[in-house]
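Is this the right way to post structure tokens for a design question? Let me know if I should format differently. Anyway, here goes:
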């Protein structure tokens, strides 16, 4: 399914192949038209003016390209252009998301919609809803129209903050835009690597989990199994979310926000972010 290069843009202008494209221009209208080109992308969190873990996002971008077309990707150039674009076009913009979009012949950089959680989401957890969907090659980040349409419909139907994906065996394996973790006691469960997007935030969650005293277990649960598991709690992690406890999946409620291990993991993770930002200011 064809999809446009420019998705959910915000702001007055965008970077496209070395030029600044103004919102409302004819070129913007071209970028909003669906294209059949293979389109690779990364969404990077802007926090306190710093592009959070940009080097990891660019490494994953290379991996995505190698998985399909294997053309050269100049990450040093992309990093320079990202910061130049922000400093020159959005000098006071300190919090949000930046999207990097590549095709074999194009590079597009723009500020995009950012669903950054509020304080209540961290304190009480988020509402989620279940979608049965088996993702194809989750570690190759290209736009997939059928998947995006199914997720959009699930959000519209449920009003949820995040959609939790279940595979064909009803096992929960990740969020629509986040990694999923299940906590039982001091064990933290994650789906196998080949089923999920190996998220940038996920790597930091893993190290934070160890620091917090958690033990990683590679395994999955169905929602029905979780309903029968005493004390089960869930959280998601992603670039905009950091670490968010799940308060419910559809009508079933979890007390994830009060889980002590999830709280410790979140504290360790936020300490890592603060250190990263301080080193790059």
């Amino acid at each position: 399914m064809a999809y446009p290069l420019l998705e959910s843009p915000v702001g007055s202008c965008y970077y496209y192949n070395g030029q600044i494209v103004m919102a409302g221009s004819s070129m913007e209208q071209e970028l909003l038209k669906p294209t059949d080109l293979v389109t690779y992308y990364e969404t990077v969190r802007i926090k306190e003016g710093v592009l959070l873990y940009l080097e990891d996002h660019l490494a994953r971008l290379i991996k995505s390209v190698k998985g399909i077309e294997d053309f050269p990707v100049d990450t040093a150039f992309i990093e320079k252009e990202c910061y130049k674009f922000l400093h020159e076009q959005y000098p006071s913009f300190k919090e949000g998301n930046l999207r990097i979009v590549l095709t074999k012949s194009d590079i597009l950089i723009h500020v995009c919609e950012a669903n950054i959680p509020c304080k209540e989401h961290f304190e009480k957890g988020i509402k989620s809803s279940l979608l049965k969907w088996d993702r194809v090659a989750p570690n190759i980040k290209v736009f997939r129209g059928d998947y995006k349409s199914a997720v959009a419909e699930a959000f519209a139907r449920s009003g949820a903050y995040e959609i939790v994906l279940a595979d064909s065996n009803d096992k929960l394996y990740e969020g629509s835009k986040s990694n999923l973790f299940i906590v039982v006691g001091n064990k933290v469960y994650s789906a196998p690597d080949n089923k999920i997007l190996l998220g940038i935030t996920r790597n930091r969650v893993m190290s934070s989990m160890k620091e917090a005293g958690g033990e990683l277990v590679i395994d999955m649960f169905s929602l029905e199994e979780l309903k029968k598991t005493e004390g089960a709690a869930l959280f998601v992690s992603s670039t905009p979310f950091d670490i968010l406890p799940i308060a419910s999946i559809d009508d079933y409620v979890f007390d994830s926000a009060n889980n002590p291990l999830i709280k410790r993991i979140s504290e360790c993770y936020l300490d890592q972010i603060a250190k990263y930002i301080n080193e790059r200011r």
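Format looks fine. Someone answered above. Worth noting: The chain has a mean pLDDT of 93. The chain has eight helices and 17 strands.
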